[in-house]
Specification:
The protein is 24% helix and 22% strand. The chain has 4 helices and 14 strands. The protein is elongated. It starts with a helix and ends with a strand.
Length: 259
């Protein structure tokens, strides 16, 4: 009996020790500023999308203001009602946050002083679209396929010096002939594909090839060719095949492709 009593005593002692060591599960602590209803908010704020904000609807705002992203902002119908440094957007006055696309992040553009993301499939230029698409009337569409050049109207390639994008005298003579050819075939579109040799970084070569194609386009436009017919396509070093100076000189060019 004494042995059984000792065993029971030990078991009871272990049970009590384990119970004492167990802590109650703490209650969930709500993150400050989060909410389910207005009653969870303080200082007259309202619950909007799970977060306490100045307003959740226009009814929470004073007269002459409107609820915009949880903040009461002045109503407007045009920029003149907003004052310096602000624009009228979505019926409220908003502070300008950009002057150019470069002030906005990837995939965003500066529209009326505000950074905005393009709608899916929307675009402002060809760079907003995938490699197999072009921007037409604000939408990305499948790029057209190259077509046969008009009879007797081939456009000659122009070449550039190393690390340069200015059109040479020889290049100007070629572009003058190309311009006359383009004027004889109105309505046809031409891609100006800029190219580089493989030296330099990918980013640098892409920018340089763009400058080369832009220079060719600018000169053609000065000769009376409609700019809307000339589409710049920077290729960088993508199609370079040269292995030494003699062959690299053939990589530095602008090629004209009829569409």
């Amino acid at each position: 009996m004494k042995g059984i009593s000792r065993v029971l005593f030990v078991l009871v002692a272990l049970f009590l020790a384990g119970y004492a060591g167990c802590k109650k599960k703490p209650k969930h602590v709500k993150t400050p500023g989060t909410c389910k209803t207005d009653s969870d908010c303080k200082d007259g704020k309202h619950c909007r999308n799970g977060v306490c904000a100045q307003c959740a609807t226009d009814a929470h705002c004073p007269a002459g203001t409107k609820c915009h992203d949880g903040i009461c902002l002045k109503r407007c119908s045009n920029d003149g009602e907003c004052g310096p440094g602000k624009v009228c957007q979505d019926g409220v006055c908003l502070a300008k946050d950009c002057k150019a696309d470069s002030d906005c992040g990837q995939g965003r553009h500066c529209v009326n002083g505000l950074c905005a993301a393009l709608a899916r499939g929307g675009c402002r230029e060809d760079d907003d679209c995938s490699d197999e698409e072009v921007c037409r009337n604000g939408r990305c569409v499948s790029a057209p396929r190259p077509t046969t050049p008009p009879k007797g109207c081939g456009l000659d390639t122009i070449y550039f010096a190393y690390n340069k994008y200015t059109v040479s005298n020889q290049g100007m003579k070629i572009l003058q002939r190309d311009a006359e050819c383009l004027k004889k075939v109105p309505g046809r579109v031409v891609n100006l594909e800029g190219h580089c040799d493989p030296r330099g970084t990918e980013e640098y070569n892409l920018a340089l090839s763009n400058q080369r194609a832009q220079s060719a386009k600018k000169y053609l436009v000065s000769l009376g060719v409609d700019a809307a017919r000339l589409h710049v396509v920077p290729k960088g070093e993508l199609e370079a095949t040269g292995t030494d100076e003699a062959t690299w000189s053939k990589d530095r060019k602008v090629v004209f492709v009829w569409y």
